[in-house]
Write a structure and sequence with these properties.
Layout lengths: L2 H13 L12 E3 L11 E3 L4 E5 L4 E4 L6 E6 L4 E2 L5 E3 L4 E9 L2 E11 L2 E8 L3 E2 L1 E6 L1 H23 L5 H21 L3 E8 L4 E6 L3 E3 L22 E3 L5 H16 L5 H15 L10 H11 L8
Antiparallel strand pairs: 1-16, 2-15, 3-14, 4-13, 5-8, 6-7, 8-9, 9-10, 9-11, 10-14, 12-13
Length: about 300
């Protein structure tokens, strides 16, 4: 659904409300130069996939139940709602490997764009782990043989009569060694490990859209599709004549935005353009204080009268 349809839909809803929006307050979209949406930052939609690549092999002992922090490069660029590349490939991504259910989950927490740390929420499914034998039963048997042999030999030698202490020490050592061998062979040391090969690629699903501030948009960001000629792009135009019509137009835009019928960048662009149009009137018009507060909260825009 394009901007023209969204704006017309918002105005249609306003007209059907108990207080009808005057025709003179309607926003008319014309084919003139557009205002860049980067004025209010850029949104990367939640449907975007965050693709990362591990530069080296990573092995995580999930039995320790400790997060494993790591910084990896972005394998593919991230696009905004218009398909423009706003975060280039190889951008650093701060991730953690979080042990979970015998495996581990990759969780991305931030990206670093133009020196700015931008929080993100993205994760993979649980990557299963493997049980590996870190110390074999034979090794454990050799270790236990010496320990049990010395322990039992010392006990039996100390409790035997002095004339037989040496003989009992040796006998206890033999018995303890045998016990140690049997216990070691039956209890090899195993660990649960998630093994991530070098150069492996993982796709993380966003849990929420990424809001890039204006300063974090990559300077080499370029549109995936060829840009339209200025004569084919749109900028809002207005013909409201008084404060009442101005207020009703702002109310319609806010309502359309809250109902999800108008993107935030589009709504803010229209509000800014309407304020610029109001500057040409004598006296200058401003929305009501309550509407100005909503505009500030929703779109981070402050009117001159409130500065």
């Amino acid at each position: 659904m394009n901007a023209r349809t969204l704006l017309n839909l918002a105005l249609t809803i306003a007209v059907s409300a108990p207080v009808a929006l005057p025709v003179s307050a309607q926003v008319v979209v014309s084919n003139t130069a557009s205002i860049s949406s980067s004025q209010s930052g850029t949104i990367i939609p939640q449907t975007a996939g965050v693709v990362i690549k591990l530069p080296g092999a990573v092995n995580v002992d999930v039995g320790q139940k400790q997060d494993y922090p790591l910084t990896v490069p972005l394998a593919q660029p991230l696009m905004d709602l218009q398909g423009n590349e706003v975060v280039p490939a190889d951008t650093p991504v701060s991730i953690k490997l979080k042990p979970e259910n015998g495996g581990a989950r990759i969780v991305a927490e931030a990206i670093v764009v133009r020196g700015q740390i931008v929080p993100i929420q993205a994760t993979t499914a649980v990557i299963p782990g493997n049980t590996i034998e870190q110390v074999s039963g034979a090794e454990r048997a050799r270790e236990n043989s010496g320990v049990f042999g010395n322990l039992l030999g010392s006990v039996m030698g100390a409790t035997a009569p002095s004339s037989r202490s040496t003989d009992m020490f040796e006998r206890g050592g033999m018995i303890g060694g045998a016990i140690g061998i049997l216990s070691g062979m039956s209890s090899p040391k195993n660990v649960r490990v998630v093994q991530l090969p070098a150069a492996s690629v993982y796709v993380l699903s966003l849990q929420a859209p990424i809001a890039l501030p204006m300063g974090a948009v990559a300077p080499n960001a370029s549109p995936t599709n060829p840009p339209q000629a200025p004569s084919q792009q749109t900028q809002p135009q207005f013909n409201f004549r008084n404060s009442a019509e101005y207020n009703q137009g702002i109310e319609a835009l806010i309502k359309a935005f809250k109902q999800g019928q108008l993107p935030k960048a589009e709504a803010r662009q229209t509000i800014v353009a309407a304020d610029q149009y109001a500057e040409t009137m004598a006296p200058k018009l401003y929305p009501l204080a309550g509407l100005r507060r909503q505009v500030g909260q929703l779109f981070d825009y402050t009117y001159a009268i409130d500065r």
